[in-house]
Each structure stands twice: as structure tokens, then as C-alpha cells.
């Protein structure tokens, strides 16, 4: 776990989704959601396991029908990562999902029926000791709130969330977290700020329906990043119209950029210019592909010339810098040997360093000046 000391996190109640703590100072977890049909048991199981391998701490699965609930029962037995059951409108599906092992229920109490139905869901959540996530989205606000505020209004999201929160409070249930998502970054950020001052429960961050990989990643990085920098947020999901594996990668990249939590390699690379002495773009793409399975946190710099290359290399665990047609590798900032280091050599150097525990607690540094 890494914590940026410049960020003072909001104090919040700690809840657990299976064995993953949320809030109360716990590491900020990264979530994603399956986009397969839940009734396709094999495809959904495979995607959940792929998301776990990519680093997802928690995975959400939509359960829109009773048929999906029966499929969920089988899926849940085949996976180990904590699963959130996403349910709308039908309280009976929520009951089934809880019975079948859901680790958390994503519902909005106000849209699953009368108080008796809500109470039945609360009762099974208490019995199974599982939390609930209240998930408010600007695209599905209550009609009266839409008429009062419109859709792109942080007060609308806040009021809707508090309506659901008050229902759970009246039923003496406080094992929950809340999200207030909008596709508009500033609406979303302000809504979370309002909510963070009103409740003690943990907050689930996200920019909903943010778009494609590039557009959605930028929106999410700005919105989620602003909130995290202010100390708001206990878990997050980056919502992309793409393979959900990308959601996990972008989520960790956001946390890593803020020095909150690190996983895998942080590549530092120059944008290239005519001074480059080797093909930086080719090498960085090759290394990212060959080392995407690495989970050990480390910095690897790939700089095309000596202007900034040596300085970046000295700060990195492994650094490559173009330098007057020479190839030199350094260990602990001391010249070790002459070596022509190519992408496969760098990848091997990373793996060898991990095997020999050279990167634990930043005890050792390796860097090289290279021209390829």
C-alpha cells in the first residue's frame, strides 16, 4: 500500500465486501463490472477471473432476471473475487442474490417497492452480513427530482442519494456505501463533495457513461483524480465503453499517478524528438506488452537521449537512456558492466530483479545509458 502524505483522506466508516475493507483508512480498492450476459455462465465466469488477474479487487455482476439469478448461483461458486450483485426494481432478485452468496447488493431502496419489501432485503443483508451499495445515477433520477433540478445538477444527485440513505437509516441499517455518478465531471465532483459532508459511510467513486477508452479515461482521471486529491473516495470504478480489463488498468493508473496505491510497472517515457538515439515508441510498446503481468511496483524509464535520460534513470528502478552510442548498465548508481540493452533484455532485467528481490523497499537501483 502507498499513501500520499499530501492527501488527507476523509474519515469514514469501514465496511467489508467479503474480505476487502472499504473506507476507514483502508487502501482504495479498484472495481469493474462484467459486460457479458450473466446467463452465459462460462463467459461471465471467465471474464470475472480475467478481471481478477488484471488486479480487480471487486467485480460487479448485473442480475436483471430470475434466470440470471440462477446463473449467478453457479458463477459465484466458481470464482474467488468478491462479487457485487447489481439489481434494480425487483426485490425478489435481491433476496435470491443474497441467498446465493452475493458479497454486496447494489440496489436503490426507493425503487424496489414498499417499505415491507425494502425491509425484507435489509433483513437478509443483516443475516448474511453483507453491505448494500446505494448507486445514484444522473440518468435514472426520480421524476420529481428531475422536475425540480434537471439532470445535470449536483443537488439533484445529492437529494436522491439522501432519500435512499434516509430509508436505510430509518430501518437501522448502516452497513452501506454510496455513489452519486454523472457523465458530467463537474456535476459529479460537486455531488460527491456535498455527500461527503453529510454522511459517514464510504463513497464509491466513478464518472458514469464516460465514453470510449480515450475520452472515458480522461474524464475519469480528471473527475476521480480531483476527488481523491481532496481526500474523498474509498473505492472506485472507471466506467468505459470497452473491455472492462481497461477499467482496471486505468483505475490503478489514476491511483498510481497520485501516489496513493501502486501495482505493476510505472513506465516513464519521453514523447520523442530528433535527438532520440533509439526507437522509444517501439520499445515502450514492446515492454508494456511483455511485462503487463508484473504486479511488483517499480519505475522503469525509457528516455531517448541524455538530456533528461540520465536524471530519470537515476530516479528509476531500471532506466534506459540514449547516450553517445554507448551502452552501459549501472547498479546502485555505480557502473557495473557494458551491455547492449534491447527490449527483451530490459524485460529480462525486470524479471531477474524481481526474482532476486532487488526492488523491495527501493534498496537497489538499476539503470543504464543505452543506444540501440
UniProtKB/TrEMBL annotation:
The keyword Ribonucleoprotein does not apply. This is 4-hydroxy-3-methylbut-2-en-1-yl diphosphate synthase. It comes from the Eukaryota. Keywords: 4Fe-4S, Iron, Iron-sulfur, Isoprene biosynthesis, Metal-binding, Oxidoreductase. Residues 266-335 form the IspG C-terminal domain. GO terms for biological process: terpenoid biosynthetic process. The keyword Transferase does not apply. One of its GO terms (molecular function) is 4-hydroxy-3-methylbut-2-en-1-yl diphosphate synthase activity (ferredoxin). Residues 13-251 form the IspG TIM-barrel domain. Its cofactor is [4Fe-4S] cluster.
Amino acid at each position: 500500500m502507498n499513501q500520499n502524505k499530501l492527501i488527507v483522506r476523509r474519515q469514514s466508516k469501514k465496511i467489508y465486501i467479503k474480505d476487502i475493507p472499504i473506507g476507514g483508512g483502508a487502501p482504495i480498492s479498484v472495481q469493474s463490472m462484467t459486460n457479458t450476459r450473466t446467463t452465459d455462465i462460462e463467459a461471465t465466469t471467465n471474464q470475472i477471473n480475467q478481471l481478477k488477474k488484471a488486479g480487480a479487487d471487486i467485480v460487479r455482476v448485473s442480475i436483471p432476471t430470475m434466470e440470471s439469478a440462477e446463473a449467478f448461483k453457479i458463477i459465484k461458486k466458481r470464482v474467488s473475487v468478491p462479487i457485487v450483485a447489481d439489481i434494480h426494481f425487483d426485490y425478489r432478485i435481491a433476496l435470491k442474490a443474497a441467498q446465493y452468496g452475493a458479497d454486496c447488493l447494489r440496489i436503490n431502496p426507493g425503487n424496489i417497492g414498499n417499505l415491507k419489501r425494502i425491509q425484507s432485503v435489509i433483513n437478509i443483508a443483516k443475516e448474511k452480513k453483507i453491505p448494500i451499495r446505494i448507486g445514484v445515477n444522473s440518468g435514472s433520477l426520480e421524476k420529481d427530482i428531475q422536475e425540480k433540478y434537471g439532470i445535470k445538477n449536483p443537488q439533484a444527485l445529492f437529494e436522491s442519494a439522501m432519500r435512499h440513505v434516509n430509508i436505510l437509516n430509518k430501518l437501522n441499517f448502516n452497513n452501506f456505501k454510496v455513489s452519486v455518478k454523472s457523465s458530467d465531471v463537474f456535476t459529479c465532483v460537486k455531488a460527491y463533495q456535498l455527500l461527503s459532508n453529510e454522511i459517514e459511510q464510504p463513497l464509491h467513486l466513478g464518472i458514469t457513461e464516460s465514453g470510449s477508452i480515450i475520452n472515458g479515461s480522461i474524464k475519469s482521471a480528471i473527475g476521480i483524480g480531483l476527488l481523491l486529491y481532496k481526500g474523498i473516495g474509498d473505492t472506485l470504478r472507471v466506467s468505459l465503453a470497452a473491455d472492462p480489463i481497461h477499467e482496471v488498468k486505468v483505475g490503478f493508473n489514476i491511483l498510481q499517478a497520485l501516489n496513493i496505491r501502486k501495482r505493476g510497472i510505472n513506465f516513464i517515457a519521453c514523447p520523442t524528438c530528433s535527438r532520440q538515439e533509439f526507437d522509444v515508441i517501439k520499445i515502450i510498446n514492446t515492454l508494456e506488452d511483455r511485462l503487463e503481468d508484473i504486479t511488483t511496483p517499480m519505475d522503469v524509464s525509457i528516455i531517448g537521449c541524455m538530456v533528461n535520460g540520465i536524471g530519470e534513470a537515476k530516479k528509476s528502478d531500471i532506466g534506459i537512456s540514449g547516450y553517445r552510442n554507448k551502452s552501459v548498465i549501472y547498479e546502485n548508481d555505480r557502473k557495473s558492466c557494458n551491455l547492449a540493452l534491447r527490449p527483451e533484455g530490459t524485460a529480462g532485467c525486470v524479471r531477474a530483479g524481481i526474482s532476486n528481490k532487488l526492488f523491495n523497499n527501493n534498496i537497489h537501483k538499476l539503470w543504464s545509458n543505452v543506444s540501440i
